[in-house]
Specification:
The protein has six helices and nine strands. The chain is an alpha+beta fold. The strands form three sheets. It has a five-stranded mixed sheet, covered by helices on one side. Strands 1-3 form a two-stranded antiparallel ribbon. Strands 8-9 form a two-stranded antiparallel sheet.
């Protein structure tokens, strides 16, 4: 099961870039969340700069924004809360911020939340934020968090407005994930990069039984 989850996480991601109005993209994600039945009175506020166009994969960026919104709603809990979503831009990059006034994140786990398979929720897969970080990196962007216990959290997704000339290949992330999945067993990792894609092959070495002769 763990190997299956790793292979799902490490499968190649094809970036299908389009010039998108990010305010429309984020607004669509907000509209989907607002109709959920388990909001417990969560209030949404948005401040989205108009006409911020960036070359992104709309499907993947929607996945990141939807995951961050879902986490913000869950952080607010059954007592409700406020989730604020903003979009701003500079000359060459856009920043999407999702802020909540929920439970916040303890310092001892704050640096672990982007690690594959790490989750502080019993029902969590530990793949949402790690995949979000991977998608941001593939866009030559970044994702970060600021949080204190009891004071909510603010996640920032930074994306370049123009697509880079070459893709980012997160080799160290894939190696770390393979090592964790295989429990420290020796393995051979072969990466075959092509444009906007990394093919991953993992071969686990097992000890051969001693020859009885």
């Amino acid at each position: 099961m763990l190997i299956d989850r790793f292979l799902s996480f490490a499968r190649p991601l094809d970036l299908r870039l389009e010039t998108m109005d990010l305010a429309i993209l984020v607004g669509e994600c907000l509209a989907s969340v607002r109709v959920r039945q388990d909001l417990h009175g969560v209030v949404f506020r948005d401040d989205l700069a108009a006409d911020v166009r960036a070359e992104v994969d709309p499907l993947l960026i929607r996945q990141v924004v939807a995951n961050l919104l879902d986490n913000a709603v869950n952080a607010c809990g059954e007592s409700g809360g406020v989730v604020e979503v903003s979009l701003r831009h500079s000359q060459d990059e856009a920043t999407i911020e999702i802020r909540d006034n929920g439970c916040g994140i303890n310092p001892e786990i704050r640096d672990k939340i982007f690690t594959p398979f790490y989750s502080s929720r019993p029902s969590g897969t530990g793949l949402g934020l790690s995949l979000a970080a991977r998608i941001a990196a593939l866009h030559h962007g970044s994702i970060s968090v600021q949080s204190e216990p009891g004071q909510g959290a603010c996640f920032s997704l930074v994306l370049p407005l123009s697509a880079p000339s070459r893709p980012v290949q997160a080799h160290s992330e894939i190696v770390a994930t393979a090592r964790k999945c295989l429990g420290g067993a020796p393995f051979l990792l072969y990466l075959r990069p092509t444009y906007w894609r990394i093919h991953v092959y993992v071969v686990e070495f097992q000890k051969r039984p001693a020859d009885p002769r």
